[in-house]
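re the bet — no i am not wrong, look at it urself. input seq straight from the record:
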Amino acid sequence: MMSSLIIHDLPSGDETIVLETDLLIEAPNWTPDGAALIVNGDGRLFRVPLDRPALVAIDTGFATRLNNDHGISPDGSMLVISNHTVIGQSCIYTLPSGGGEPRRVTANTPSWWHGWSPDGRTLAYTAVRGGAFGIWTIPVDGGAETCIAGGGGHHDGPDYTPDGEWVWFNSDQGGSMQLWRVRADGTDRQKMTEEHAVNWFPHPSPDGALVLYLAYPPGTDGHPRDLDVELRVIPAGGGESRRIASLFGGQGTVNVPCWSPDGQRFAYVRYARPA
């Protein structure tokens, strides 16, 4: 299946194909210096320099069963990965941004990373604890984990606002999967969308103005790949959403933070429709 790595310019609406490959690649992150994108494929991580686009493998040591929940620290010095290699369930690790041996962060599993606090101190992630999906946080060096959104339903995809005050996520609590936010301390949970679409993976923009997300057709179960989907934005304070792009994709398109540092562009992956 052909994967196309795309940059969308929000002010103009123009799109640039950065790279096309027969490898199934997913979930682009933008490095804080703006120079490269990070994607996963075939259980590994790759850096894509924007001045000379190519898939440059990143050494992740023993971690060779990565899923598409990975990211970069706000200062660009560390990577975070979600990996299945050692214990067969997703566990969160960090490693130097240039590559190296991963260090385990979450003692409990399964855990899937999704957000890094702007001050660099805390990770936000989806986890199953006691058979239930919730949104959890943990110090970046490990330690006690804290549930900030639980209590029934499937809660997933947490990402911080640039001021660190809020964590956006998606949840099917009370109905179909929609966008929610909660304060970083777990208080004041608010539902932010009520749409026919099934909404996943909210990503606040670096300027705090908008939230980008993936919208599936009504009735979609989970977040599968290979569907006709939309990328939409909503004002960070709530309100009407607007469609930015329609594409064939889903799982892997924007699973993790994907905004450019200046908040004017974002990266995503679309896939070739089967013949």
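see?? The mean pLDDT is 97. told u. also The chain has one domain: 3-271. so pay up
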